[in-house]
């Protein structure tokens, strides 16, 4: 029987330094920057907030944890969580009015600076479009730069499922969106920023990934990020070098 020797992968400090400076350079000369939304652009996880608002918080939080841990596919986790929540259109609207998503400190200034540098900004989220559009409006990001899941409602406003054809409803969907953006806009350098494994997996096709731990630190993401920041101020400082 053939035995394979598995050698643990270790980054040599020199390799990490050059890769860190490469990542910073790619960020400075990016054509576009794509942000995850939940726990990155906003402080909370939208689906957990919706569940709490609908009185089923604990059951859904547990399932979110499983989804993040990769013990079920993203689509399965989304389907199961939404079938517990079963939110109406009215409940979603009331959530946005009564508990609007809380922007992470520094994101407004960062997006403004990126726009000033003529760098396109996109929001790519496994969360819900109705919530993400509210966030985009606050940040002056055009709504056609938003990619997220769409909730479906019957004419009387009751929950009717979600649009399963959206790329963000699948594992690997964020990468597919980035490939599509590169083609559609002729973008060469695209940087993905986020807190979770699905964001990290979008690179490639993203040219670089920046891990964000300002709201929650996920150890597996931190370990695998060439550049990991805990505040948007660190990214703003880098843009000052342009």
Automatic annotation (TrEMBL):
* Cofactor(s) the protein requires to work: Mg(2+)
E.C. code: 3.1.3.3
- Does the keyword rRNA-binding feature in the UniProt annotation? no
User: Pathway, per Swiss-Prot/TrEMBL?
Assistant: Amino-acid biosynthesis; L-serine biosynthesis; L-serine from 3-phospho-D-glycerate: step 3/3
Q: Pfam families annotated for this entry?
A: Hydrolase
Q: Does the keyword Metal-binding apply?
A: yes
**UniProt GO molecular function:** L-phosphoserine phosphatase activity; magnesium ion binding
Which reaction is catalysed here? O-phospho-D-serine + H2O = D-serine + phosphate; O-phospho-L-serine + H2O = L-serine + phosphate
User: Which SUPFAM superfamilies does this chain map to?
Assistant: HAD-like
Q: Which residue ranges does UniProt annotate as crossing the membrane?
A: none
Q: Which BP terms from GO are recorded? A: L-serine biosynthetic process
Where do the catalytic residues lie?
Answer: 36, 38
Show the GO cellular component annotation of the record: cytoplasm
Sorted alphabetically, the keyword list is: Amino-acid biosynthesis, Hydrolase, Magnesium, Metal-binding, Serine biosynthesis
Family note: Belongs to the HAD-like hydrolase superfamily. SerB family.
PANTHER family per record: PHOSPHOSERINE PHOSPHATASE
Q: What does this protein do?
A: Catalyzes the last irreversible step in the biosynthesis of L-serine from carbohydrates, the dephosphorylation of O-phospho-L-serine to L-serine. L-serine can then be used in protein synthesis, to produce other amino acids, in nucleotide metabolism or in glutathione synthesis, or can be racemized to D-serine, a neuromodulator. May also act on O-phospho-D-serine.
Q: What is this protein called?
A: Phosphoserine phosphatase
Species this chain originates from:
Labrus bergylta (ballan wrasse)
- Source species taxonomy: Eukaryota, Metazoa, Chordata, Craniata, Vertebrata
């Amino acid at each position: 029987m053939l035995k394979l020797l598995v050698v643990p992968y270790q980054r040599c400090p020199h390799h990490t330094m050059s890769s860190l400076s490469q990542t910073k350079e790619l960020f400075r000369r990016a054509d576009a920057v794509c942000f995850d939304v939940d726990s990155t652009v906003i402080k909370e996880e939208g689906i957990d907030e919706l569940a709490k608002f609908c009185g089923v918080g604990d059951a859904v939080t547990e399932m979110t944890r499983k989804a993040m841990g990769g013990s079920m596919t993203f689509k399965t986790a989304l389907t199961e969580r939404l079938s517990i929540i079963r939110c109406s259109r009215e409940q979603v609207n009331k959530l946005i009015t009564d508990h609007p998503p809380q922007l992470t400190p520094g994101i407004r200034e960062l997006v403004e600076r990126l726009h000033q540098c003529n760098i396109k900004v996109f929001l790519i989220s496994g969360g819900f479009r109705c919530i993400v559009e509210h966030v985009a409006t606050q940040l002056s990001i055009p709504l056609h730069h938003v990619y997220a899941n769409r909730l479906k409602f019957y004419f009387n406003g009751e929950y009717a499922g979600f649009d399963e054809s959206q790329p963000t409803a699948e594992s690997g969907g964020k990468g597919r969106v980035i490939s599509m953006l590169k083609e559609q806009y002729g973008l060469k350098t695209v940087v993905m920023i986020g807190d979770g494994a699905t964001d990290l997996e979008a690179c490639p096709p993203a040219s670089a990934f920046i891990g964000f731990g300002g709201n929650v630190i996920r150890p597996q993401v931190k370990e695998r990020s060439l550049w990991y920041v805990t505040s948007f101020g660190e990214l703003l400082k880098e843009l000052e070098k342009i």
